[in-house]
């Protein structure tokens, strides 16, 4: 299992799959994940992909899980295709995840574990998409939530129940995991080791034939290797933007509407008075009276300072607000007193208060006629927004009833713009540096999620101001182009492929010579070809680990071999062959009190707990029994890959 994790973190999709697996079956698997997941589990249908205990996993469940995983991957890698994902082993990993979840559920049922309805209700209540303004579950929002995800109430409850079952059964797998100090120290010595070695490259270009292949040779080769030339999916988007200028006539606010708005905001237009007040709080009434007498000849601040106290100044407040800050009696007194007067003592929750009115801010009220100039533009804007909302709803209704984008554009007097073929990452196909128009930014992801052409939609570009109507005019699936369109590139790749074969043959001879003790550089020099110089490596493992996924594969291999070993590695895309040799492995010296040991111990405990969790899942799967239907699985895999 540890080797699986090491390999997975080095592959293109491995990290996402491993983390997705931990998310799927770990503590975070319940309501939050269901809320954002339209694909995983729940809905029965399709052929049987596997029998798990007394239950079954349908191909439809697997398909939804695969599709959703690819959608999540595209957030980080927009150009990832379903075909790529399957080719990298993603389908098989997701299938294992789905089967494991079913096995956990069957295991729990077998041993009498039960997830109550009230617990499931509490998980549903946590879903943000179903909460109304009062924070409680809104039945209307809940039904919309189910429709958006293609689920019924029973199916969602089953998913949540399975999730909670997995959480209960797997959460304790890593409790109390402890790795002995001696093991940690040994691991630390490996992590801190230093290695020396050599890496030589035999580029395919140095061995490639100089002659151009015949059309027949090239055609045969291209037919067998056309997947190398697959062009990513491209989409052409048609769109038009518009503003509220499309609203020809919006009725002006009526007198009744103006009066209603005035009455609804009467407090805003009434005359008001705010007062800025300073207060000194004393513990007893006697102390307050003495301070008041002293304030007859001094400032309130001076009186407070003489007693080791301070005066608190409140921001300008209305009478009711001041009552909340002090007391009703204090507010009444403050609003009856003239500016500058010190008054009191007044009983307050924390003692006895002396008050001083520092400032009086009065605001004259407005009659309906006086407020009209303010209300009229506000109501006009509101009515225009309401009209625009109604207008947008009418467009959406037209789309729902079968109107095309062309129909609506003609009705609105808009000119449709058609983009050049675009990639999922927003770039224009075949034109480096050129991207999709800025006005498509808010709808681009939606356009690439549409299942087919000619599905018009309406969206906001700038909320309340600018809108866009759009559809996908053309979808060009990911596919290799005709040979004629890439002939020169194909010739170059053909020559490199032939060169790679010759480079491997030469590399095998070099490998044999180096194993017999010959220096790698000397062995390569005998070939008499313009080869890159041999890289002399002298690095600690920690430095290589810091490179993460950016670690060059031959360097990673050098740190995986034993001392004295020599091994070949092919470069990607037929670019050549590496010869990797480890000359020395110098173990790290880690003392028993090294400050890095606690961090190493945490790392080992985390990986060990993951292994325990995987072993527990395997044991559950073995106890309930899981049998795959390979015919149905292979048919689904072929269909998702684009085959017949």
What does this structure look like?
Belongs to the PpiD chaperone family. It comes from Novosphingobium ginsenosidimutans. By secondary structure, this protein is an alpha+beta fold. It has four domains: 2-180 and 604-640, Triger factor/SurA peptide-binding fold, CATH 1.10.4030; 193-230 and 484-586, Chitinase A, domain 3, CATH 3.10.50; 234-251 and 369-476; 272-363, Roll (Chitinase A, domain 3). It is 49% helix and 16% strand. The protein is built from 27 helices and 15 strands. The strands form four sheets. A four-stranded antiparallel β-sheet has the order 12-3-14-13. A four-stranded antiparallel β-sheet has the order 9-4-11-10. The chain has a four-stranded antiparallel β-sheet with strand order 6-5-8-7, sandwiched between helices. Strand 1 (48-52) and strand 2 form a beta hairpin. The longest helix is centred in the middle third of the chain and has 33 residues, at 368-400.
Topology:
Layout: H1 2-8, H2 14-25, H3 31-35, E1 48-52, E2 55-58, H4 59-76, H5 82-87, H6 90-110, H7 117-125, H8 139-149, H9 153-170, H10 181-191, E3 194-203, H11 204-207, H12 215-225, E4 234-243, H13 255-264, H14 266-269, E5 272-282, H15 285-294, H16 300-306, E6 312-313, H17 319-325, H18 328-336, E7 342-348, E8 351-363, H19 368-400, H20 405-412, E9 417-418, H21 444-449, E10 457-462, E11 466-476, H22 487-515, H23 520-525, E12 535-540, H24 541-546, H25 553-558, E13 566-570, E14 576-586, H26 597-624, E15 626-628, H27 630-640
Antiparallel strand pairs: 1-2, 1-15, 3-12, 3-14, 4-9, 4-11, 5-6, 5-8, 7-8, 10-11, 13-14
Helix pairs in contact: 2-6, 4-6, 6-9, 6-26, 7-9, 10-26, 13-19, 17-18
